[in-house]
Amino acid sequence: MSATPGSTPLFPLFLHLRGRRVLVVGGGLVARRKIAALLDAGANVRVGAPELIDAVQTLVDAGRVEHVRGTFDTAWLDDAWLVVAATDDASVNRAVADAAEARRIWANVVDDAELSSVQVPARVERGPLQVAISSGGGAPMLARHLRETLEAQLDESWSSLATLLTRYRRVIRARFADVGARRAFFERVIASDIGDLLRAGRDRDARDRLRALLADTATQRRGRVILVGAGPGDAGLLTLRALRVLSQADVVLHDHLVGDDVLSRVRRDAELIDVGKHAGAANASMAHHDTQARIHALMLEHAKAGRTVVRLKGGDPFVFGRGGEELEVLASHGIDFEVVPGITAALACAAYAGIPLTHREHAQSLHVVTAHAKDDGNEPDWAALAKPRQTLAIYMGVAAASRISARLIAHGLTVSTPVAIVENGSRPTQRVVTGTLDSLGSLVDTHAVQSPALLIVGEVAALATTLHWFGAPPLPREHALQAAA
Ligand code: SAH
Questions:
Q1: Residue 126 half-sphere exposure, CB side, CA atoms within 13 Å?
Q2: Staple partner for 181: which of 74, 176, 275, 453, CB 3.0–4.6 Å?
Q3: Which of the four pLDDT bands, split at 50, 70 and 90, describes residue 483?
Q4: Is it true that domain 1-120 has CATH number 3.30.160.250?
Q5: pTM for the predicted model, two decimal places
Q6: Which atom of ligand 1 is found nearest the CA of 345?
């Protein structure tokens, strides 16, 4: 039987049809369209039909297509690699599909995904470059819409660029034997003005630019590090720039917090290194120190080897991310770097919990702070934080929640100041817990809040109750008290 669409995903292929026999059953307009595409791919086309429309007959007369006259006969399939059933008679199409299946010949039945063992995708062609789009037969309109979108986006310069690079393929391969070096070269081609020159019809100048890039040895293997903010977890919150560099990376050094959703956007054959955890260290602070030293060493090692290193961090790299320290190390070693900002936890958690961080009636300023559990003398300025009409976004505060609440109250903040805890902000597992400042510690305990979670303190936190839109509604204070009782 033919393959059933919908259940199993299709496997995409591009076929080399040059000189290979393809049978087209049917001699009308649809057949003609298919024949034209098959001839473009160099296929050796045999058309089987009782009658042919003129346009097809012309191809037969010109010797470009072979014609077998009559009604479908399985012998027509002899020598065929592929068959296209393009008649308007469903029973003939089915007979062709069944006969092909019996002989293990791939069959495409025009406009019938169910009968087809192979489907012809919607496609966008730019010279040697082809984009094939399939919806598995389930939503052809969607595939067509996507094709139109791409048609509009990919101007003809893509064709010229693909042609130019095809022409220089051997030279490029010989010049850069190493895959990494070759990739770096292609990135420079893409980043150069070659595309613009081609778009302007200046093919000769474009070719000269390519030659110049080929001749340039000085910068060809210059490694660099790109510090990238991965945002809070939802890959939709990555910037376009972040996506672009993820697709260019040779090596990605990522924090443990960066989720699979984001990591799946990394170039397939890039090396992924989780630098977030370091096993075997005697204690937590040693582990931290070792981890950071290892990150510095890895960045330097890979960048010096000429690779494009992406240092991927949760949220924004410059907000409690030690991005500054890492850049200082790179700068002192003369390594090139770039920074791509990300959506920091305070912004993401606030947005996804429906808590405006500033509000004309409730808060005129936002303080982004951290408060570790440890009494290490690195105390924040509690007096400055314990003021009304401002919002505190507290990072890494779960373990220290009771202490934070006690300090703020001791410095004068009202016990009834609203608070919200946003756990796993922006992720499918997001939980929001709301209450008042005096209950901050018990809210964490009662709901067994886990890291990563952000504490928000200030009048605006109360708005989560009415403005929440993502995930489950906030767990109310009553619930917390009941559960605690
Ligand atoms: N550079 C990161 C912060 C790293 S510090 C940023 O800009 O967001 C780690 C702390 O960030 C966590 O302890 C937690 O307080 C907060 N955090 C990070 N991701 C979070 C998320 N998805 N939900 C809630 N808090 C998060």
A1: 19
A2: 176
A3: very low
A4: no
A5: 0.66
A6: 8
